[in-house]
Structures are given as structure tokens and as C-alpha cells.
Amino acid sequence: MSSIDKAKDTTVEAPAAAAGASVSAVDPRLLVREQGFAGYIGEFKRKMKGGDLGAVPVVIGLIVICAIFQSMDSRFLGAQNLTNLSVQMVATGMMSIGIIFVLLLGEIDLSVGSVSGVSSAALAVLSVTHGVNEWLAILVSLAGGAVIGAFHGFIFARLGAPAFAVTLAGLLFWNGFMLQILGDNGTINLDDGGVVGHLTGYFFSDVAAAYGLAVVVVAGYFLSAFFGARRREAAGIPSRPLSDILLRTVLLAVAMFAAAAVFNQYKGLPLAVLLFAIALVATDFLLRRTSYGRKVFALGGSVEASRRAGINVAAIRVSVFAIAGFFAALGGLFFASKIAAANQSAGAGDLLMNVIAAAVIGGTSLFGGRGRSWNALIGVLVITSIQSGLALEGIATAIQQMITGAVLLATVIIDSITRKTQKSAGRA
To answer: I need a labelling partner for 418 at 20 to 30 A (CA). Which of 83, 127, 293, 336 fits?
Structure first.
């Protein structure tokens, strides 16, 4: 065969080989869905070897914490304590949702505590001192939190000032502003029976409410997963097998109906928990199912790559800080609801550290690019469980803070080690 004929054969066969390569070049992680349980076990092992521990350490830690405190005091896992713990965690959890958006960029917002305080103070001044309709006062306080956050984000994104310095200045300024608008008295009492009072004080006493919510959540998950899998199959994309969907649905049903049973043994479904669940689902959808969420993760992975991909980096940064400000204000309303007042101590103490700790302990990376809204739930459960268990034992607040700090340090160390392991495995 002549060299010309060989060249012709090569040119004919090359496209076929290339086409075959393009067809076979499928991300192996996508095939996990079709392999069923064996695929997930293999994927779990692969992640463990690669240093991607996910929520495994914190879930194990939460189980150990509950076991220890239950052995020390049988009231810990009682219906009353668990219900009170669930309501208690919502304010910090709401604020932690907002801080997760900022952490996904690899940045920090130190002003959320002060923003929560000034928002509750603004609500009290408007609704109590000036007689403004409470719903309108709530909207103004929430919008004010978002505007404050956007202002911080603008200075960071447009003027290039470090987010740490900008939000540290915000912490000082807004705390002073809160003291100024509260006046010499320093405390404004709120109506227990008002809208804000009901945020943490209202319970759906009818047993059908908690069980009905469980049915809606479980059915919604199953239908979403089932029809999502059918759409993926129709498009020729690997999807979860029906057995996997059924197992996940059963596990979710067990958790939801167990929680409903606990709530109904005390006062019923807390309104605060329902609102927290709605916030978690909405923000999780925003991060995982929208182009905006993909841009946030992309920006947390690499600013320069995001800019070259056409993402408006400044706009995303401003919006993320606005979201953090909004949830800080929302958390402030829940704190005001718990004590039925707005006072000078709002947003102070260890609140800021608890908010950041909840996000990080839950699994959000301080290095950016990794985290989910549900991390706020897991993290705040750990922190609130520690505080509740120690309080039942009469342990001083100082010891509670020391233990929480130790847990946070351990989480940060694990995060750093995980990141190094992923780099060495070529996964980071």
C-alpha cells in the first residue's frame, strides 16, 4: 500500500475514532445513578479516598452528642426539649443561610450580627414608637437588611476594599446606629400577640398540621425525583433507578413522621420550624437549580475563570451580600420574637461566631466553592444541641462557648486536611 493510500485510510479512520471517543467520554460520576446501590457504595468509597468527606463527620458527631446528653439526662430527647431546641435554632439558622452564600465566594461578612440587631430595632421603633403597621415595619426592616448588605457588597465588589474590612466597619457602625435609634431607654417591648411575636410563639396545635406537612414533603420529594428521573431517561441521561428513589423516600418519610410525632407530643408544629424549612428549600433550589446558583459556585471556584466565562462578577458579589443582609434581618426578627423586645444586646455576644460556626460545622468550606443551604440546618443543630445539653446539666455559658469553639476548630482542621487530600488526589 502506498503512503498516499495509508494517509487516506488514516483520514477516514480518525474521525470515526474521534467520534467514538466523544461518545464514550462520559463523566463516570453520572453513571452512579444507573448502577443503583453498588454505584453509590463505590462513589462513597471514591469520595472517602479522595478526601471528600461531605457531611459524614458532622452527622456522626451529632449522633454522638445526642447519645452523650441523653445518657446524662433523659429529658434531652424528650418532646418538650426537642421542640424548644427546634424553635431556638431558627434565628441562628436563618442568619447562617445568608452567610453560606458569602462563604461560597470564599469571603466573610462580619456585620450580620449588627445588621440583625439594627433590623429588630428598626421594626420596634416603627411599629411601637411610631405606630406603623407591623407588616409594613417588617417589610421595611427586611428590605433595610438587604440594602445594607448590598451596600457592603458594592464597596467590596466595585471599589475593591477587602470584605473583611468593609463588614468589620459595618459591624461597628450598625451597632452604634442601633443604640442610637433605641434611645436612652435601650429597650422597646413588642406585642406577644403580634406578627413578630407569633414567629416563635405560634404552634399549629392540630395534629393534622405536622402530619400533613410530612405527607406533603414526602410526596413532593417522590414526585420530583420520579418525574426528574423519567425526564433524564427520555433525554438519554443517566438517572436514579426506581429502587433508589423509593429507598430515599422511605428514609425521608421515617424522619419526617418521627419529627411530626415529636412535635405533636408537645404543642404541635412550630411556625418557626415551618418557615425555616421553607427558607432552606427555597435557597437550596436557588443554589442548585438556577443559573444564578451555578454562577455563585463558579465564582467561588475561580474569579478569573468566571470573568472569562462572561459572568458579571461584581453583580454576583453585590447580590450575595444583599442575600446575607436579608437573612441577617430575618434572623433578627426571630431573636426579637423570642424575647418579645428589641434591646441593646441584640446582635451582640457570641451570635456572629455561632452563625459562622453553624455554616462551617455544617460542611460549608471557608475556602469557597463548596456548601449547601442544608449545611445551616446540620450546623445549627450541632451548636444548639451542645448548648441545650449543657444547659440541662447546668454548665456555665463560658464552658458552652469553649466547647463550641473546640468543635469549630476541629471542623476547620478537617476542612483544611480535606482540601489538601483532594489536591493530592487531583480533585480540588
So the answer is: 293
